[in-house]
């Protein structure tokens, strides 16, 4: 029997636990012996590699985070530690690895693959949705739903108090979470790192709207701009509205995985195992236009992601484009 391991690397996402459940169950179905690596690449280096059983994955499908822990590993950037990691895997006879993580994790895996010839398959997992080559990363739907609930709640108080609220959402340097959240929560403003904004243009529109009766504002800004306080002050000074800032922070990373997330986790994981069994040794499972496909890691790492132009066009007025 062949052995296969899975690890979670980088920021955890809701959807990792459903993926772990599928990993164990589908591995057994395919006659593989499943292993968990605890704590991402750190766990590989420290030999925290344990056999997984059905019992390990009962009662986790509805939980956010990851049962096998995640980490951002600095040590994995050094060759001597990657050598140790490979030795630990080989000692247990593991020659296949599934990696749930973001672009940083995949870059690490690319180097590891080239040096150590251990087959791996990546599953894009980051709430930021900033991986080149895939339109969807695990965790995004749940994060968007967390933001939706928070924004709807903030709207209640914003409208009662006639205030402007600036909500900062995660996403690192990517504006995807901010843009989709602004579009789906009826925000008046959305500022993201990818698009140059024009406050003067927004001011003209807002003042007109206020004249016509608008009495509160919701602005969603991406964390990459680091300008939430400045925008709140702008609402006070230029639009004449009392303002508040809410930074949603790490609540966006947790919570009960949505139905879509669970299904995506199951599908990503099934494709990952199938890809390794079919002999693919350095691929990432991508999801584009409703379909899953495999891309080689170099393709993923060769370019920076680009924000979906059709979403930018939908959000034109919020972005002040
Ligand atoms: O996982 C992605 C992410 O949540 C980003 O959106 C954010 O910038 C970062 O991780 C926060 O990292 P940490 O949990 O290390 O503070």
Protein described:
By secondary structure, this protein is an alpha/beta fold. Helix content is 43%, strand content 20%. It has 12 helices and 11 strands. It has a 7-stranded mixed beta sheet, with helices on both faces. It has a 4-stranded parallel beta sheet with strand order 7-8-6-9, with helices on both faces. Strand 4 (94-101), helix 4 (103-116) and strand 5 form a beta-alpha-beta unit. Helix 1 crosses helix 9 (259-277) and helix 5 crosses helix 6 (176-185). The protein is elongated and about 70 Å long. The relative contact order is 0.17. The mean pLDDT is 97. The structure holds 6-O-phosphono-beta-D-fructofuranose.
Mean pLDDT: 97
Bound molecules: 6-O-phosphono-beta-D-fructofuranose
Give the number of helices: 12
How are the strands of the largest sheet arranged? 3-2-1-4-5-10-11
* Class computed from helices, strands and strand pairing: alpha/beta
How helical, in percent, are the residues?
40-55%
Q: Which parts are unreliable, with pLDDT below 50 for 5 consecutive residues or more?
A: none
Report the order of strands and helices: EHEHEHEHEHEHEHEHEHEEHHH
